[in-house]
């Protein structure tokens, strides 16, 4: 269960953005909608422990995340939250497999190559495990981002505009992979987007005004 209670934030010299309360049950899939500048990225950063809001509480599975020390919060994030950005942020000098091992090590988890293979196979890119990011297509790279996000079986999977840089075919594939992976890993899924192609796939929506 994830909950957002009485949360608001303002950046210096800017008007305060208020976020209505939100309760997300385990395994639910949500779309986060809002016009450009309404605060979607801000809210995702608050939900993922990257940005402490000026006011309010964020609970993830009984843990008030902003009550944790920054070291504990980093570790909590690595183990419990998987993030997929608009464009993949992979380490170019490491292979695909090494990028995933790095995500295990950031979370202070032991290297688990069986899990690396399992995730790459479920995403249809096991044959790329020894390739470098520069050798993959955009669609394949976005699959690696999903692999990296789910490698540690997070409770919460967050995607920020995951399809906006992809063509129709890849956008549909990435969306169904996200939904499938959140199901396989029993992760709650939150997708922020203004990509109209994504909207019909979700029944739960949280809208920023
Ligand atoms: N680091 C920052 N410092 C100051 N103001 C910021 C910062 N980040 C965001 N803002 C402001 O906060 C508001 C919300 O921004 P945010 O990026 O969360 O919106 P968004 O809904 O994700 O927009 P978009 O869809 O265009 O990415 C905007 O007015 C933006 O200018």
From TrEMBL:
Taxonomic superkingdom: Bacteria
Record's keyword terms, sorted: ATP-binding, Nucleotide-binding, Transport
GO MF assignments: ATP binding; ATP hydrolysis activity; transmembrane transporter activity
Residue intervals of the ABC transporter domain: 2-206
Stored CDD domains: ABC_MJ0796_LolCDE_FtsE
Pfam families: ABC_tran
Any one of the GO CC terms: plasma membrane
Xref: PANTHER family: IMPORT ATP-BINDING PROTEIN, TRANSPORTER, PUTATIVE-RELATED
Identification of the protein by name: Putative ABC transport system ATP-binding protein
Species this protein is from: Pedobacter metabolipauper
């Amino acid at each position: 269960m994830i909950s957002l209670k009485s949360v608001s934030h303002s950046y210096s010299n800017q008007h305060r953005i208020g976020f209505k309360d939100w309760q997300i049950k385990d395994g639910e899939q949500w779309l986060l909608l809002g016009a450009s500048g309404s605060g979607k990225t801000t809210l995702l950063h608050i939900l993922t422990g990257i940005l402490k809001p000026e006011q309010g509480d964020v609970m993830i599975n009984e843990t008030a995340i902003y009550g944790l020390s920054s070291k504990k919060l980093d570790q909590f994030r690595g183990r419990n939250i998987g993030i997929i950005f608009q464009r993949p942020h992979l380490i170019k000098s490491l292979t695909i497999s090494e990028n995933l091992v790095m995500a295990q090590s950031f979370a202070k988890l032991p290297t688990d190559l069986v899990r690396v293979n399992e995730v790459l196979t479920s995403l249809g890119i096991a044959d790329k495990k020894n390739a470098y990011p520069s050798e993959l297509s955009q669609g394949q790279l976005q699959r690696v981002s999903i692999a990296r996000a789910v490698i540690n079986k997070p409770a919460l999977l967050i995607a920020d505009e995951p399809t906006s840089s992809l063509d129709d075919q890849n956008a549909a594939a990435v969306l169904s992979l996200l939904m499938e992976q959140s199901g396989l890993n029993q992760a709650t899924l939150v997708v922020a987007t203004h990509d109209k192609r994504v909207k019909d796939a979700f029944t739960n929506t949280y809208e920023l005004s």
